[in-house]
Structure formats: structure tokens, C-alpha cells
Design goal:
There is one protein chain. This protein is an all-alpha fold. The protein has helices at about 10-25, 30-40, 45-55, 60-65, 65-70, 70-90, 100-125, 125-135, 140-165, 170-195, 215, 220-235, 240-250, 255-280, 280-285, 285-310, 315-345, 350-380, 395-405, 405-415, 425-445, and strands at about 385, 390. The chain has 21 helices and two strands. The chain is globular.
Length: about 450
């Protein structure tokens, strides 16, 4: 029986994540993309905005070897405080549209977000090592479930409120108010960040004086296999979320405010996924749940392909449904992968460097891939080809390529290992066959009268 428990005052980490989610869900999410699109920004600029945070995360490599010496709290608080200040300028930016041309406003938006994400990149390397150090191995799944639940609830609230304002997306005051909410969320998160407990153990002797060589980390087989899987998923799956938003706005004709409410619904459904994993992932392992998520992706991208190719009707209903259900599986993927990474490198010498290297490599892919895919989409948007008698437009080609690339994701997933984890096949059998069978048997043997 697991005797490990969560540390005292860990609720401060939950509230920090919640108010921080209010901030980034707006300033790095759909509202920012919709604002840029309202200004007439092309897809490649949307890709750049989506990629700034991942690209600037490379700064972690500079800071990570010194994070323990500086102190996790000091590093995080300094970086987060400075980045919150930049949101003041983002809040005022929509009001400048009346006297500056859209091109200038777009350039200023890119400049502001570059400063914001640079400050984030400097500080963020301290977060995961900090949490890994204070949360015992046996309850990390339970912690992450609660942590992501707070994030999900806060994201729903932020998106619902933003959606109310942005139903009138022609009003730049609405965007200014929404970005102001992002600032308030970030400022409030700092209060709780200062109250998260420090690790009980002191930094290892000599850790800051003798950091590991980065290439030595790449000789760790378990870490490298998980890293490759993370990179492939980011490149082939996660980097297309921005263009799903653009597709439903321009091809399905869903209003901006409704898109934000759909995104909020996805976050709400994601909380159900976190609830499902809370009592299971620590016992069953992360690996089987990653397999289940992969099966969802195969259905998800094929459905978008069919919608873009106009092979099925009811896009106004199916598109929001796909976006909402995707939130369920996204939460399962993120929790499972994060827990597996924590348990893979959390006890190694140079933990901060392991987390930083994984974050930087994956983030670089996350930053470059949307720019790449945005450029591709700009070039093929007017393209039309016929395959097996089915006319395909640019979006259909785009989603079709994403579906084919899932073959690469499968190869990477098969290389991931986790000791004492159940197989995906066994998990599906238990959920789809054994559990319903037990319930039916119980009903059959229930006494009547």
C-alpha cells in the first residue's frame, strides 16, 4: 500500500497554476490568434505567434545548470514578475488600432510577445524540478491530476469570459479587456507562487559547480526514447492546433466567441479525463494511456480530413464535437507524459538539466513546426487535386498529411518503455470488455423483489 502523501501547502501550487492558466490561456491561446487574424495576419504570422514561447525556451539551457544554486522560488518569481509587466502593453495594444496601421500593430504584438516569452523561457526551467523534488514518486499521478484539474477549471472560466466579450470581435475594446484579464490572472498567480514549499533536501554538493555535459544526457536510453516520442508527437500532432482554429473559423464559419466557448468546453471535458486517471495512472502506469490517446488521434485527424474534403455533412456539429472530445484525450496525454518524464529522470543526477533539455528540444520543434505548417498551408490553401475521385482542397491535403504522419508517431510510441506498466491492449480489454461484463453479471445476480 502506498504510504506516500502530498506535502503540506501544496495547494499553493494548484492555485498558482490556476491563475497562471487564466493568464496564458488568453495571451498565448485562442484570443491572441483571433486578434492577430482580425488584424489580417497571414498563417505564417499565426504560426510565429504560436511558436514564440517554444522557441524562446532554449534559454533554459543557459540557466538550468545554475537553477539549484539560484533557488527554484527566486528564479521563478523573478521571471514571472517581469513577464506579467509585459502584459500591460498587450492590454493597451488593441486600442492603438484606431491610429496605427494593422501592420505596425502586428509588429508591436510580435515584439511584446517576444519579450513575454523570453522572460518565461529564462525562469521556467525551475518549475518541473521544483515540483518533482517536493512531490513523492508514488503520488505524482494524483498530484498532476489535481494540478491539471485546477488548470482546466481556470481555463474554462477564462475562455467563457473571453468568449462573452469577443462575440463582438470588431470592437477592439473587447480584446483590450480580455488581455487585461490575462494581466490580472498573472499578477494574482505571483501571490501563490511565493508560498509553494521549497524542497526539504538541500542542493547536491557540487551540483552547480559540476553540471553534466549536455551530450551525456543523450546517452541515457530511457530518456532518449521518451524524448524522441515527445518530439514526434509535437511535430506531427500538437503543432496543428492553431490551424484547426483557423479552419473552423474560416471554413465552418463558427464565430470567434463560440470558438472560445468550444475551447472552454474542451478544457471542461479534459477535467473528466484527469478525474479518470487520478486513481489509476499511479497503479497502471502512463504507457497504456499513451496508447489509448494514439488510437484517438487516428480517428481525430481522419475526421478532419473528411470534413475538409466535404465527404461528410454536418460540419457545424461534428467540428465542435471533435474539438471538445480532443480536450479529454489531450489531458490524458499531457498528464501521462509528464508523469512518465518525472519518474524517468526525477531521481537522476542533473535532474534540472534533464527537464531543461527535454523542454528545449520539444519546444524548439513546437516553435518551428507551426511556422513550417503555416507556410505550407499558405501555399496549398488554393490548391485542389482529385484523389480516387474525391476532390481535395488545401485543408483536406493538410489534414490528410497529418493523418499519414501518425505512422511515425506509432513507431516512436512502440519504443517507449515503462516498468510495471500495463499494456494498452490489456487496459482496453479491462475497460471495454471485463468491466462491462462484471457490471452485467452483478445486475443479473441482483436479488429481485
Amino acid at each position: 500500500m502506498n504510504s506516500e502523501t502530498l506535502p503540506p501547502r501544496i495547494h499553493n501550487a494548484y492555485f498558482f497554476q490556476a491563475f497562471n492558466a487564466v493568464s496564458w490561456q488568453i495571451c498565448l491561446g485562442s484570443p491572441l490568434i483571433l486578434f492577430a487574424r482580425e488584424l489580417g495576419a497571414p498563417a505564417v504570422v499565426l504560426g510565429l505567434l504560436a511558436g514564440l514561447a517554444p522557441l524562446t525556451s532554449v534559454l533554459q539551457l543557459v540557466v538550468a545548470p545554475h537553477a539549484e544554486r539560484i533557488g527554484y522560488r527566486k528564479l521563478m518569481v523573478s521571471g514571472w514578475s517581469a513577464r506579467v509587466v509585459t502584459l500591460v502593453f498587450l492590454t493597451l495594444l488593441p486600442l492603438t488600432v484606431t491610429f496605427w496601421p494593422p501592420g505596425v500593430v502586428i509588429a508591436l504584438m510580435i515584439l511584446i510577445m517576444t519579450a513575454f516569452t523570453t522572460l518565461r523561457g529564462i525562469a521556467t526551467c525551475a518549475w518541473m524540478p521544483w515540483i518533482t523534488a517536493i512531490v513523492p514518486r508514488g503520488v505524482r499521478g494524483a498530484y498532476l491530476s489535481r494540478d491539471r484539474t485546477f488548470i482546466g477549471i481556470a481555463s474554462v472560466a477564462a475562455l467563457v469570459v473571453a468568449g462573452i466579450f469577443l462575440f463582438d470581435h470588431d470592437n477592439m475594446w473587447a480584446f483590450s479587456i480580455v488581455f487585461g484579464l490575462s494581466f490580472l490572472g498573472g499578477a494574482t498567480s505571483l501571490y501563490f507562487l511565493n508560498r509553494i514549499p521549497e524542497p526539504e533536501c538541500q542542493p547536491r554538493v557540487g551540483a552547480s559547480l559540476a553540471p553534466l555535459r549536455w551530450r551525456d544526457l543523450l546517452q541515457d536510453g530511457a530518456f532518449v526514447r521518451l524524448l524522441i516520442f515527445s518530439v514526434v508527437v509535437q511535430l506531427c500532432v500538437l503543432s496543428t492546433a492553431t490551424f484547426v482554429t483557423v479552419f473552423v473559423r474560416e471554413e465552418v464559419n463558427i464565430q470567434d466567441g463560440l470558438i472560445l466557448w468550444i475551447t472552454a468546453g474542451a478544457a471542461l471535458v479534459g477535467i473528466l479525463g484527469l478525474r479518470l486517471l487520478r486513481s489509476r495512472v499511479d497503479g497502471l502506469g502512463s504507457r497504456p494511456f499513451l496508447g489509448v490517446v494514439f488510437l484517438w488521434w487516428t480517428l481525430y485527424y481522419f475526421a478532419w480530413f473528411l470534413l475538409a474534403a466535404h465527404a461528410i455533412e454536418g460540419a457545424w456539429l461534428l467540428a465542435p464535437l471533435l474539438m471538445v472530445v480532443a480536450g479529454f484525450f489531450a489531458s490524458i496525454y499531457e498528464l501521462s507524459l509528464t508523469r512518465l518524464m518525472m519518474n524517468t529522470v526525477g531521481d537522476r543526477y542533473g535532474t534540472t538539466q534533464y527537464f531543461a533539455l527535454q523542454s528545449v528540444i520539444v519546444s524548439l520543434v513546437a516553435g518551428l513546426a507551426p511556422i513550417l505548417w503555416g507556410g505550407v498551408l499558405d501555399h496549398i490553401r488554393t490548391l485542389e487535386i482529385v484523389v480516387a475521385g474525391l476532390p481535395l482542397n488545401g485543408y483536406a491535403i493538410f489534414f490528410g498529411v497529418q493523418w499519414l504522419l501518425l505512422g511515425v508517431v506509432l513507431v516512436a510510441l512502440l519504443q517507449v518503455r515503462e516498468g510495471n506498466a500495463m499494456s494498452t491492449k490489456t487496459l482496453l480489454y479491462r475497460v471495454l470488455v471485463a468491466a462491462p461484463g462484471h457490471r452485467l453479471a452483478g445486475l443479473a445476480h441482483r436479488p429481485r423483489g
